[in-house]
Design a protein that fits this description.
globular, five-stranded antiparallel beta sheet, alpha+beta, 7 strands, Peptide Deformylase
Length: about 190
């Protein structure tokens, strides 16, 4: 499967608001091939998710999947989910502090607030309407990917820009404490 080039922060497509995919085009060969390439690109790069903007495409499409991910060893597994024209609704006022990274922001991580219980609605790749809840840390991943479709990066949402760090510094200084946050969020919301 063809993989696509991931664009980096600074590329203007990351700041574009992506456009809705017409429902009757979801099953077209071009959209289906694009989805396959997006999945392959995410898997090759070991991302937890990827949005169309990140490969210089402006359809409202993102993919989430966490399976034995070496970039995020503490993340709970989540099956491959392709979302087209997604909408996210917060189902609680609660927020947690998520330490995020991004394939388009090489070697940086930072802390943002995310809602731990959300409803995701939109279409799957068979052009069927879908609606489901996502709880815990993975809800943060869905919000991160939905942000991409609106031209928003996690660095726009940093609670404290001074906490931005490299992956080495994250592993050295913050990984242990963040694992405890992950455990607490999972225990509280995803039981
Ligand atoms: Zn990202």
């Amino acid at each position: 499967m063809e993989t696509l080039e991931i664009i980096d922060i600074g590329h203007p497509t990351l700041r574009e608001i992506a456009t809705e995919v017409p429902i009757d085009e979801i099953r077209s060969a071009s959209v289906q091939e694009f989805i396959d390439s997006l999945i392959a690109t995410k898997r090759t790069a070991n991302g937890a998710g990827i949005a169309a903007n990140q490969v210089d495409n402006t359809w409202r499409i993102f993919v989430v999947e966490v399976m034995n991910n070496p970039r995020y060893p503490y993340k709970p597994e989540y099956p491959l989910t392709v979302m087209i024209n997604p909408e996210i609704t917060y189902l609680t006022e609660d927020r947690f502090e998520n330490f995020e990274g991004c394939l388009s922001i090489p070697n940086l991580r930072g802390v943002v607030h995310r809602c731990p219980v959300i409803k995701v609605s939109g279409y799957n790749r068979d052009a069927e309407p879908v609606e489901f809840e996502v709880k815990g840390i993975t809800a943060g991943t869905f919000q991160h990917e939905a942000d991409h479709l609106n031209g928003v990066l996690f660095t726009d949402r940093l609670i404290d820009p001074r906490e931005l760090c490299t992956w080495d510094e994250f592993n050295r200084r913050y990984e242990e404490s963040f694992k405890k946050v992950v455990q607490e969020v999972e225990n509280t919301y995803n039981t």
